[in-house]
Design a protein that fits this description.
Blueprint (H helix, E strand, L loop, with lengths): L8 E5 L4 H12 L3 E6 L2 H13 L3 E6 L5 H15 L4 E4 L15 H28 L3 E6 L13 H21 L4 E8 L14 H11 L8 H12 L10 E4 L6
Parallel strand pairs: 1-2, 1-4, 2-3, 4-5, 5-6, 6-7
Helix pairs in contact: 1-2, 1-7, 3-4, 4-5
């Protein structure tokens, strides 16, 4: 494994499981000092323990992306602990309960938008505020292949929120590339996490369903998504600005 992030300080939101945990491990495995953020202390501390067991450097900050004060504290604590913030992966997100539009509870709609969209905005505000005062940085947001790229029945709140993350990423990229901040997004398809399992579905059931639903014939590994995140965060993509990289095995091709 390379050391593309040696000397870098990275924040990962939604780092307690799934893609976020894999991302934190990926950055740490390539030399970064990683702050793992999430609303539940136990899960993010577990991620930190895994990273430290692999020889990496990480610490946890309990923070809710829907709270502006938590995002301010996250960035402030990161800088206090490690002296800088170079890269952020804004990954926190939820699906919400699948519901037809005509039956969608406004409170459920708002909760999904608060986490998936406003959470990204609040995180970026604080990250950008620090980065533009300290020579720039890199931000990668997690969008989805459901949203701007494709739609599913019953997933209005999720699709709308993730489509908006794609648009927000592009506007933010144009707003802040002049500040030395590169901002891009990754849009995963079905990935080997609990979020891609339907209620009561086993891993084998999911594999059978996706064998025909995904042109590549399978679910993505979390590492395959993280490979895209790490590339977007690295100097290898130094001229990539405002891009939304779809990693979905051909579903939205």
């Amino acid at each position: 494994m390379g050391r593309r992030f040696e000397g870098k300080v990275v924040v990962v939101t939604g780092g307690g499981a799934g893609i976020g945990r894999a991302s934190a491990r990926g950055f740490a495995g390539e030399g970064a000092r990683v702050v793992v953020a999430g609303p539940r202390g136990e899960s993010i501390e577990e991620t930190v323990g895994i990273i430290e067991g692999e020889g990496g450097v990480a610490s946890a900050v309990v923070a809710d992306v829907t709270r502006a004060e938590d995002m301010a504290r996250l960035v402030r604590t990161t800088v206090e602990r490690y002296g800088a913030l170079h890269i952020a992966h804004n990954n926190a997100g939820i699906f919400g309960k699948p519901t037809p539009v005509g039956d969608l509870d406004p409170a459920d709609w708002q909760h999904v938008l608060d986490v998936n969209l406003t959470g990204v905005l609040l995180a970026m505000r604080e990250e950008v505020g620090h980065m533009r005062a300290h020579g720039g940085g890199v931000i990668v947001n997690t969008a989805s292949n459901i949203g701007y790229h494709g739609r599913r029945p019953g997933m209005a709140a999720y699709a709308a929120s993730k489509a908006a993350v794609s648009a927000l990423t592009k506007v933010a990229a144009l707003d802040h590339i002049g500040d030395g901040i590169r901002i891009n997004a990754v849009s995963p398809g079905a990935t080997d996490t609990t979020m891609s399992l339907r209620p009561g579905e086993s891993d084998a059931d999911r594999a059978a369903r996706l064998a025909t639903a995904v042109p590549a014939g399978r679910v993505a590994s979390t590492q395959e998504i993280v490979n895209a995140v790490l590339w977007l965060a690295s100097e290898e993509s130094s001229f990539v600005v405002g891009h939304d990289l779809v990693v979905d095995g051909g579903v939205t091709a």
